[in-house]
């Protein structure tokens, strides 16, 4: 009887974990090595009432920004999180500031206070070495100098790059994050990163709104973004628009768009409309009466 009770308990535990695991598809629109010193550009966005994730795949880590929109302290549990490579193998992950920690030890949880964000570079174990000789998450075609040091990725028009793109196109990577809420409850998020080497938005804009890229057909009517700005403050939200559905209101002060500070965007209103019209999700961090929140505009 004890064995049966134990077996049922284990089934219940694993069932609870499976139910808690949210599988979210995130498309990687541009696969390049991030030049040193550039602002990080987040191309993947997700949020719910508990957390928000913005991330971008680099050659040896995942650039991420994790936001806590709740009134409670939140923790990222690294010992319960993982990275899944293209072959389906699971790897431990560590935040960048703890790379020197022996991976046989548990990495301390990262605390994210209420209504704040933490920019965290997530490193999968097995893709870096202690002498800073980084291994790549994918085998990028790179150029090396006379000393064998990587200096750049092969050009987009090179045969090596096209071969690389064909090899990984349609495949995916995974990022499993375990968050602990203010009540000590573990929340699991299983993000699937689909590898897409087509710079869809740039192609769409360069063509004047005409593109063969899926979802960008020019015969489709433009979506009703319904958002007007005066400086960084929303001056109008049209009824039935994407902005209204996202929960934005007149008077909201925009802080960031897709992880970029609004003061670094030349024309924020146009920036939002171009991306929403092209079929991309647009994550907006805003302030309303002193409270920071997130909204996502998407078709």
What descriptors fit this protein?
5-stranded antiparallel β-sheet; alpha+beta; 36% strand; 17% helix; Pdz3 Domain; 6-stranded mixed β-sheet; 5 helices; 299 residues; 2 domains; single chain
Name the helicity range. 10-25%
Q: Would you tell me the overall average pLDDT? A: 77
Q: What's the order of the H and E elements?
A: HEEEEEEEEEEEHEEHEEHEEHEE
Q: What portion of the residues fall into strands of 2 or more residues?
A: 35-45%
- Class from secondary-structure proportions: alpha+beta
Low-pLDDT stretches are: 11-19, 209-220
- Radius of gyration, taken over Cα atoms and rounded to an integer in Å: 21 Å
Tally of DSSP β-strands: 19
Give the CA-CA distance, first to last residue: 53 Å
Helical stretch tally: 5
Number of domains: 2
- The general outline is globular
Largest sheet: 6 strands, mixed
